[in-house]
Design goal:
Blueprint (H helix, E strand, L loop, with lengths): L1 E7 L3 H12 L4 E5 L6 H4 L3 E2 L9 H25 L6 E2 L2 E5 L5 H18 L7 E4 L1 H7 L8 E5 L3 E2 L2 H14 L3 E4 L2 E7 L2 E7 L2 E10 L9 H4 L6 E11 L9 E4 L4 E4 L4 E5 L3 E2 L9 H14 L7 E12 L6 E4 L6 E5 L5 H16 L18
Parallel strand pairs: 1-2, 1-12, 2-9, 5-14, 12-20
Antiparallel strand pairs: 3-8, 4-8, 5-7, 6-7, 10-11, 11-12, 13-16, 13-17, 13-18, 14-15, 15-16, 19-20
Helix pairs in contact: 1-6, 1-9, 3-6, 3-9
Bound molecules: flavin-adenine dinucleotide.
């Protein structure tokens, strides 16, 4: 049997690609090794492009499309397969909590408001500065607040639930799944014709590499360096005996954040350990960093129970953009990786774009800026 396509990798990017392919009636096999450290299982799930001050313009362009697409995808999944995803609009507070952060806060504020004014969105009534008292009223565990910006439309999603919902919906539409590692691509006359997994040869017209931080392993065979590195992230789930369902996400100026969930859970994170290698484990220094920063910003979390610590390997690229599209000089192989710290934001939409590319459809969004050729 020959599949229309094989998707390598069952994180949010691979499952979204497979889901969109089977929605079109294609015969698809998803092969997933389920590595410890799968980023999708650890992700905090913050969806808030309007407050992002770290990533370049091409990121924002893709994120704008991805944000617009999210509610539609979530609705479809809910309608199709009782697909709970944890997606909700919960708002976000960007805060400075100490005097030495006031300058960085002012720079971030200028960046965010200039961009809002240039783009004409979000509306002023959805993204605005609030007082310290108002910030503490919205997130009672906060300590001192020296500056706060509120963004009403920030949302969150549960990566595990979302990828499980995509998976279930895709299987209901005929997706075949194999839990194994792809050891090798089959290449004949400069064209990919399938994969070898568990020593078995499986044929396909096309192959998508959505292997997250592990995607680079296919570079040698394809004759191209895939510059995606693992960046370890340690993230801690705290539990409070308080109703946190109306609390917003907190994004602190120094880069850490807190994501409240309705069950009294507040997820605090995260380390960004570039150069960590593939060891998906917690470290004393990582846990210390995450808890110290969380309690510095929100001392009211001090008595929270530590419920769980997760570790994920973000597929990191140096220019903070994903790697999407075809591979030069080899036919029928596509890359969908490199989403770094924002793959839950971008990944579901990237999967849709790559599915359209595989199906030979016109793309709704230009992907030139994300092609691997930018590194060559
Ligand atoms: C601590 C942390 C916090 C984060 N917070 C956010 C956030 O708030 N917002 C946001 O948008 N993003 C966030 N992210 C980033 C986001 O989680 C990732 O960008 C995204 O999940 C990457 O998805 P992926 O499918 O590319 O990779 P993964 O989820 O890592 O999945 C890759 C899969 O491919 C499989 N695989 C690899 N090689 C092979 C092979 N040869 N054969 C078979 N299978 C293979 C692996 O086993 C794995 O299952 C966070 C990440 C971390 C770690």
């Amino acid at each position: 049997m020959t599949y229309d396509a094989i998707v390598i990798g069952g994180g949010v990017v691979g499952t979204s690609t497979a889901y969109h392919l089977v929605c079109d009636g294609a015969k698809i096999l998803l092969v997933d090794r389920r590595d410890a450290g799968r980023a999708t299982d650890a992700g905090a799930g913050i969806l808030s492009p309007a407050t992002n001050t770290r990533d370049p313009d091409p990121w924002l362009r893709l994120a704008a499309f991805a944000s617009e697409y999210y509610p539609q995808l979530v609705d479809n999944l809910q309608a199709e397969q009782d697909g709970e995803t944890g997606f909700a609009t919960c708002g976000m507070l960007l805060v400075a909590v100490s005097y030495d952060e006031i300058e960085s806060f002012a720079i971030a504020r200028q960046h965010i408001f200039n961009r809002r004014d240039q783009r004409g969105e979000p509306a002023e009534e959805d993204l605005y500065e609030i007082s310290s008292d108002e910030a503490r009223r919205r997130f009672p565990a906060l300590g001192d607040v020296r500056g706060a910006i509120y963004y009403r439309d920030a949302a969150r999603v549960d990566g595990r639930l979302l990828s499980a919902a995509l998976h279930r919906a895709a299987e209901a539409k005929g997706l075949a799944v194999k839990h194994a590692g792809v050891e090798q691509l089959l290449i004949r006359d400069d064209s990919v014709t399938g994969v070898i997994t568990d020593g078995e040869t499986i044929s396909a017209d096309k192959v998508v590499i959505a292997g997250g931080a592990w995607s680079q392993a296919f570079g040698d065979q394809l004759g191209v360096h895939i510059p995606v590195e693992p960046q370890r992230g340690q993230i801690i789930h705290l539990g409070l005996d308080t109703d946190t369902s109306s609390w917003p996400i907190i994004s602190a100026v120094r880069g850490h954040y807190m994501v409240p969930w309705p069950d009294g859970r507040v997820v605090v994170g995260a380390t960004r350990e570039t150069g960590s290698g593939f060891e998906a484990r917690t470290t004393a220094a990582g846990v210390l960093e995450v808890l110290a920063e969380a309690l510095r910003v929100a001392p009211g979390l001090a008595q929270a129970e530590v419920r769980e610590i997760r570790v994920g390997l973000r597929p990191y690229t140096e220019d903070h953009l994903p790697v999407l599209g075809a591979v030069p000089n080899i036919q029928n192989i596509y890359l969908a990786t490199g989403h770094g710290p924002t793959g839950l934001q971008l990944g579901p939409y990237s999967g849709k774009l790559i599915a359209d590319l595989v199906l030979g459809r016109e793309l709704a969004t230009e992907i030139d800026a994300y092609q691997i050729t930018r590194f060559l």
